[in-house]
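Deviation from plan, reported transparently: phosphoenolpyruvate complex.
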Amino acid sequence: MIVILKKNAQPQQVELFDAWLHNMGLETHKSIGANHTIIGLVGDTSRVDMESILALDIVEAVRRIQEPYKNANRKFHEEDTVITLSNGAKIGGGHFMVMAGPCSVETEEQIISVARSVKAAGATVLRGGAFKPRTSPYAFQGLQGEGIKLLLEAKAETGLPIVTEIMDAKHLPLFEDVDIIQVGARNMQNFELLRELGRTDKTILLKRGLANTIKELLMSAEYICAGGNEKIILCERGIRTYETATRNTLDLSAVPVLHEITHLPVVIDPSHATGNSAYVPSMAVAAAACGADGIMIEVHNDPMHALCDGAQSLTPAQFDTLAKKIFAVREVAMS
Ligand code: PEP
Ligand code: MN
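Because the crystal trials were delayed, the predicted structure below was used instead.
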């Protein structure tokens, strides 16, 4: 349920109203927009009498929200969420963010050289996996804690904030200086992990599961919001369909759909979506054209010898060419 307040509502009256709602066992979420202040109610609102709320002086309108996601719902929060990182880079509300780097952190030289190249090409965030969710337990699992140390070195060297995946909440202390914590596709519905992340103040990059709907993605975001953390970036990275020509099928329509129903920023990952470096540029450009708030691309200094996902990784030179196109297309798309 949302309560839209009148423009002239006095702060003391709003506070009293808020306290009254809390007394009824409801959580409230206040969103102050350019046009309205909206109070979103979370909890069992079935016994809330809409008529008596509407009768209050400060209330303009009351509406029930049908969707099961509340905090992530645009009806709760009309304006786009804008997230700002340590280097000043922003995402959401018209700000575009390019994240790039290798699938996995492999060596100090590798991560620092890739970080330097992607920064020179215009990326504002460095990606790199330290904990890798691999299909086979015998495949390279990532450098783990050591990988995070190397990412932090690359951050100190280049000033680029870093994004890296968490697989278990027990590793959270290692993520203290990580700017964006990624929840990978395979963990999108690891609800305990989502709850833990909801209790942090970290920016979370939440990837859509391999076979999950947009609604399920938003329900996972809701788990994080419910703990009080709304710094969430949603990521479409391809879903599993009957098509086998690409690693997954990139659902670009998720961008306009999500923009309509949520205030959270949306990033496209064309690398995991296609699984093939030959297809990454066209899908990356398409993502910029359809209004994505950001893009995440795998870049490796030597894709042929990458320990993970080499086939979908661009070389720094390919990324440099692509980044120019992405920025140009983004400008046209937003004009
Ligand atoms: C990754 O970003 O390297 C990764 C494993 O992504 P996903 O969870 O989308 O497969
Ligand atoms: Mn990868």
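The chain has a mean pLDDT of 96. We consider this an acceptable substitute for the interim report.
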